[in-house]
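A quick aside before the break. I want you to see a complete sequence-to-structure record at least once, exactly as it would be stored in a machine-readable document. Don't worry about memorizing anything.
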Amino acid sequence: MIDQYLHIIKNFPETVQGEPLAPFTSIGIGGSADLYYKLTDITRLAPLIEMAEKHNIPTIILGGGTNTIFADEGFRGLIIHIQAKKMELEGPYVSAESGALLSQVIQFALKHSRSGMEKMMGIPGTIGGAVRGNAGAYGTEIKNVFVKATLWNAGKGVFEADSDYMRFGYRNSTVKQNHDVILKVWLKLEEKDTTAALAEAMEIVKNRVSKQPKGKCSGSFFKNPGQDLKAGYVLEQCGCKGLQVGRAQVSPQHANWIMNLGTATQKDI
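That is the input. The structure line, written in tokens, reads:
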């Protein structure tokens, strides 16, 4: 494998060897990656990942790391960490590169008098991850404002996809099934005075902070098993609050949050 790595290192000299992965995840778990590349220019993704595939180098695309737990042994391959974060107003749309945090996109939209995403304020992770998993809160989901995205996959290369292609479902989209990589998204928001929307967003964040456990975690861990049945409630009824293995614990405050108490391992989780 080392010989294959030399192709990446030579052609992409910003690549780092032996990079610890735990700091790039919200739960703070994982060993080191053989190769790590911080991607700030989305045009570099296609040639990088295509070179990795040509030389049979396993690849993982990493965004905000809020839904990611790496193995204790690390990753024998290439981690491409998408950090491209440019946001713009493009006519009636807000566009954002996939590495921009969802909260940053919402703040950018409100600053430019665009409303429709404020109920999702406080959801961690990137806009790319939010689109991939059709993130949502309080009755609002990404699919409600999504227009199109620039994607990459091994079969098509770089292409544009609309809502029909995405087939958004509950915390799901075509992107997950097809192993597409999101490069950039366009969102259609309502142009209006956002004073009230900004106040609502701040109140939602305040409410989230007051109710959610504090510490290293990935937020809500399991999907709700039904529209009117919350995963946290089910886990609490099963007596899971406070359950602990090693330094991993089901939060005593919220049963759908699994916490790293400081030195938890992937095997503990």
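Two observations worth writing down. The mean pLDDT is 94. Residues 195-211 form the longest helix (17 residues). We'll return to this after the break.
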